[in-house]
Specification:
Layout lengths: L15 E4 L24 H10 L3 E7 L10 H17 L6 E5 L22 H9 L8 E4 L2 H9 L3 E4 L5 H11 L3
Parallel strand pairs: 1-2, 1-4, 2-3, 4-5
InterPro entries: HAD-like_sf, HAD-SF_hydro_IIIA, HAD_sf, Heptose_bisP_phosphatase, Histidinol-phos
Organism: Roseospira marina
Cofactor: Mg(2+); Zn(2+)
């Protein structure tokens, strides 16, 4: 699911950075769903701006099982993503699309309690972004703070890396250089 329908331009495929949200772009406070819970990781806006200026797509791919568990609803996820996009824009950075999975295989109630192909480590969110946008898969990467993020990226056919902390801009700069960007 996306926060809003993507409106990508047609054209030549471009490399993409697939980024986990909680623990990679912002501190993981467990089930963040309000703007007052968001604290950006050091270098987050700089990293996105670097990607934007180099012509890369930037996609956030995030499991949001708090929806399935009844802790918050999809409207809250979408409102938070809209706030994040606006806050990043104030810092000169852009996310091209937010993709989220509201499901959990064992917790919550239908329709959210179910197995799906979008919950990481499944690659569904990445594959959907690649269907929605012209992505150069060979030059793209996935970065997240959990093994399931790496597994999702690998299953989608992109190089994948575990974010272990530090300035996100420095990490992204190294990954871009390794991927020809």
């Amino acid at each position: 699911m996306t926060t809003e329908p993507p409106h990508p331009p047609a054209g030549t495929p471009r490399p993409a950075a697939f980024l986990d949200r909680d623990g990679t772009l912002n501190l993981d406070v467990h089930y963040a769903h309000r703007p007052d819970q968001i604290v950006w990781i050091a270098g987050a806006a700089d990293a996105l701006r670097r990607l934007n200026e180099a012509g890369w797509w930037v996609f956030v791919v995030t499991n949001q099982s708090g929806v399935a568990q009844g802790l918050y609803d999809e409207d809250s996820v979408q409102a938070l993503h809209a706030w994040m996009a606006k806050d990043l824009a104030r810092q000169g950075a852009r996310v091209d699309a937010f993709y989220y999975c509201p499901h959990h295989p064992r917790e919550g109630a239908p329709p959210y309690r179910r197995a799906c192909n979008c919950r990481k480590p499944a690659p569904g969110m990445l594959l959907q972004a690649m269907a929605d946008y012209p992505v150069d898969r060979a030059r793209s990467f996935m970065l997240g703070d959990r093994p399931r993020d790496v597994e999702a990226g690998e299953a989608a056919g992109v190089d994948s890396y575990l974010y272990e902390g530090g300035n996100l801009d420095a990490v992204v700069s190294r990954l871009m250089a390794a991927h020809g960007g």
